[in-house]
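Researcher: We're teaching a course module on how sequence relates to structure. For the next exercise, students receive a sequence and then see the predicted structure as tokens, so they can try to spot secondary structure elements on their own. Here is the exercise chain.
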Amino acid sequence: MSVCFEGEQRELKSLYGKMKRLQERKKPLVENSFYYPTRWLGNLVTRLGADWHDVYCRGTWSYLELKKSHLYFFTETAWQPPFALLKLIQKVYPSLTFYFSAEGDDWDAYLTNDAEGKYYSNRYIVDCEPDIEYFDTIEEACNHLSAYIGKPVAASWETLNEAANEWNEEHPDSDWPINVKQIEVISNDELWE
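Model: And here is the predicted structure for the students to work with:
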């Protein structure tokens, strides 16, 4: 999951400082068996004053970066995105607003809360050999698939799905079936339900 926080510079710097110091420790704040133990999300939960047993934190963060107006990092988690951690961060830093893009084949969800596309504008994924491509519009996604399969694909989610399924049926021995995904835009209220 890719996460971007924006808000008061003081709070952004404070959160960044906590995360940076945690990942640079020789030993993790809380003993754990993750591959990158100092970047385990439970360390951040603990540093923010909560109990890691009570906040879903099964994963790690990476690519921590502080820009002038926002803080960015990536999380890799098992089974679900760490939405409870984002809620905790907002509780500790009330000026901060977060945007995210989360995808997971294991939990079959492709989500963002960035309705305006400020940080995460992609809405469609076309996975066909040799790469996975991300697109902002259905027209772009359909044009890409059309070029790949050599047939026109009208610009709609339904026809994109139909074209991918049809190609897969016509090429059952392919090592790389075509997969298409739509990234759902949800509100933060839906995360806490």
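Model: If you want an answer key for the exercise: The longest helix spans residues 9-24. The two ends are 19 Å apart (CA to CA).
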